[in-house]
Design a protein that fits this description.
By secondary structure, this protein is mainly alpha-helical. It contains 15 helices and no strands. Helix 3 packs parallel to helix 9 and helix 9 runs parallel beside helix 12. The N terminus is likely disordered.
Length: 373
């Protein structure tokens, strides 16, 4: 999962990024490598790391756009898209090239047509079990990057009040709940392929998975256009952290109890969105422990998180076979340590060789989202 770089690093946000990618890596290890209860409930629920990435992306991108709109300088939609492209596409295209050019790398798994990746529509009706399937979340984020700035500028050009923005956020959340409820009734409950349909038409679906992104946008809107309320909210960072952990704990309990049940399908994702939004508030809050506590290695993990997300799953799948042949099963400490280390290493190599050079290009030619003076 990709997270926009910030000119000023905030320890709390780095901690959340590092937590997000760690959760996803552990979950994919359980799902595709060990196929056992290797990390307990953490491995089972680790998929929520993607939802945390979504919330972070919604806040960071929303904050960029709204801050630019409030600036006396002219916001450039073309430069925004150019900066996004240089940030997200080079490493993604490198991974696509590896997958499509090497049957060995994709371990014989079927790949969707290339055009679905290039148009970022791979997540739509995605069949579980295909190669590079975890790119579904990148597709949703790219769709989000395309729609949000254009929608924000359109509302601003109509001279609409902030109520329109808040109404749009509420409408998207409610619409997502209604779509999930309808889809669950039609394609999941009492359906012979209900479990598969849950992933194909709900979990991977753009219309069903915007909750956390929109919640992040709501935080950015609050910060930029309601400064007094934002200061009040962030002044109680530790309280927000505690409340966020409680809400996320409730959501985790519900999802572990019945992952594909009707109630948790409809209300569980907004609950995660609320919990992660509160953690982001805590990460930004004054005198907050989450903001001030420096977790060793978190800043590096946060910096490499996008590249780690792209590489880790297939690296672990490929490394599992030789380790098993040498007597180290996927559940052994040696295999776990080796594969997790390879996940970080592969992400670091991709970051150093591809992502960082293109970020330097972006810094030189497209340093801001504003039109040149």
């Amino acid at each position: 999962m990709k997270i926009p770089a910030s000119t000023e690093r905030i320890e709390g946000l780095d901690t959340l990024r590092a937590l997000a990618v760690t959760l996803v890596v552990l979950h994919h290890y359980v799902l595709f490598v060990s196929r056992a209860d290797t990390f307990g409930w953490v491995g089972k629920i680790g998929w929520i790391g993607v939802d945390l990435f979504f919330a972070l992306s919604g806040y960071l991108i929303g904050n960029q756009i709204f801050a630019a709109m409030r600036s006396p300088r002219d916001f450039s939609l073309a430069r925004f898209y150019g900066r996004r492209a240089l940030r997200t596409l080079p490493v993604f295209y490198v991974m696509l090239a590896i997958y499509y050019s090497s049957p060995w790398f994709r371990a014989g798994l079927e790949l969707p047509p290339l055009w679905r990746f290039l148009t970022f529509t791979q997540n739509i009706n995605l069949a579980p079990g295909t190669a590079f399937s975890h790119a579904w979340s990148l597709c949703i984020e790219e769709q989000f990057y395309l729609v949000l700035p254009a929608l924000a500028l359109a509302i601003a050009s109509l001279r609409a009040s902030l109520r329109w923005g808040w109404a749009a956020i509420a409408a998207v959340i409610v619409a997502g709940m209604l779509v999930r409820a309808y889809t669950w009734q039609e394609l999941v409950v009492d359906h012979p392929h209900g479990s598969r349909n849950y992933y194909q038409y709900i979990y991977y679906s753009t219309l069903c998975r915007f909750d956390e992104l929109v919640a992040g946008v709501a935080l950015a809107l609050l910060k930029n256009f309601h400064p007094r309320q934002w200061r009040t909210l962030t002044s109680s960072g530790n309280l927000a952290c505690g409340a966020g952990m409680a809400v996320i704990g409730l959501a985790i309990w519900l999802f572990l109890d019945e992952r594909q049940g009707f109630g948790v399908t409809v209300f569980g994702y907004p609950l995660l969105a609320l919990g992660f939004s509160l953690l982001i508030v805590a990460a930004l809050g004054r005198k907050s422990l989450l903001r001030s506590t420096r977790v060793p290695g978190a800043a590096s993990m946060a910096l490499w998180s996008y590249a780690i997300y792209l590489t880790h799953k297939q690296v672990c799948i490929l490394a599992a076979t030789p380790l098993r042949e040498h007597g180290y099963g996927a559940g052994s400490p040696v295999a776990i340590g080796a594969m997790l280390a390879l996940s970080v290493l592969s992400g670091w190599v991709l970051y150093r060789c591809v992502e960082r050079p293109f970020m330097a290009v972006r810094g030189r030619y497209l340093p801001t989202n504003f039109k040149p003076l």
